[in-house]
Structure formats: structure tokens, C-alpha cells
Specification:
By secondary structure, this protein is mainly β. The protein has helices spanning 3-17, 33-38; strands at 41-43, 57-61, 67-77, 83-95, 100-105, 120-125, 130-135, 144-149.
């Protein structure tokens, strides 16, 4: 092999071994997870009549970020089988680096194996494009009840 071809081949092989600029791992989470959740509408991608164009929900927090409200655009059926339009939570802690907020649902009736009310962990995933729920008593962590970020309506020109 001629020296010029050897050098070219070596450069090509070393370039293939290096990660490209766009391959830096999982998407980065929003800097302020509370503001990100509040600024968007959310919906179930796989629950009938709960999609973005049917019955999305918003998430708000009080100024101290100790309370949270999940408000649906229209009525929905909650885990008790009752018609509802809002869920209220106490925020217990948050971890912006992990993209999690640990919360207690007011009136929670589900219990852990130890007999305590379930405590939920909202977990931002896919760089903030979705969130799911985990529980403090689940090990290893799980991701259930996926919600996706609803895209804003297209501008009308």
C-alpha cells in the first residue's frame, strides 16, 4: 500500500471510531423542569379520548413549588373510576439533574406493600418531550403512564 493511501485509510478509520458531534448521549433535560412542565400541554398517547387534540392537561405549581395541579381540558376518569378534571399534589422534593419531582396525590388510596400511601415520582424523559410516573417503593425504578408533550398548533398565515 502506498504511504498516501495508508494515511488516508488511517484517517478514515480514526474518524469512524470517534463519536460524531450529534451523538452525545441522551437528550439534555430542560434547565428548569417546573417551568418546562408548566409551559406545555401534555396528553396520553395511547389512551382513547385523552390525546393532545382531545383532552390534554396542563400542570401548574404554586410560587414556592410545594403544590401542583394537573388540570384536564375536559372530564376524565381517574384511577378510582370517578369522573374528575383535576389532580392536586404536594411536592415533596425535586432533582433537576435527574428530571424528577416527587409528589403525594391528595386523597391517594393506593398503598405500598408496607401499608403507606403511594408517593409518586414524575420523571421527565426524552429530553423533556415526555414524562412518566414512578413510585418511591418500586425497585428498580419503573416508568408507567407515559404522557407526551403536545406540540403547539401550527401558525396560521
Amino acid at each position: 500500500m502506498r504511504p498516501a493511501r495508508s494515511l488516508t485509510l488511517a484517517l478514515v478509520l480514526s474518524a469512524l471510531a470517534l463519536p460524531s458531534v450529534g451523538q452525545s448521549g441522551p437528550p439534555e433535560l430542560p434547565a428548569d423542569i417546573f417551568a418546562h412542565l408548566t409551559a406545555n400541554r401534555w396528553a396520553f398517547p395511547d389512551v382513547a379520548e385523552m390525546h393532545c387534540d382531545e383532552n390534554p392537561h396542563t400542570i401548574t405549581f404554586n410560587e414556592e413549588r410545594t403544590k401542583s395541579w394537573f388540570d384536564w381540558q375536559g372530564p376524565m376518569i381517574n384511577y378510582l373510576g370517578e369522573t374528575d378534571q383535576q389532580g392536586s399534589y404536594d411536592v415533596l422534593e425535586s432533582d433537576p439533574e435527574e428530571g424528577t419531582i416527587t409528589m403525594y396525590l391528595h386523597g391517594e388510596q393506593r398503598m405500598t406493600d408496607e401499608g403507606s400511601p403511594v408517593v409518586w415520582i414524575l420523571r421527565l424523559i426524552d429530553g423533556g418531550e415526555a414524562y412518566c410516573w414512578d413510585r418511591t417503593d418500586w425497585s428498580p425504578p419503573r416508568c408507567t403512564h407515559l404522557h407526551i408533550r403536545c406540540q403547539p398548533p401550527a401558525p396560521i398565515s
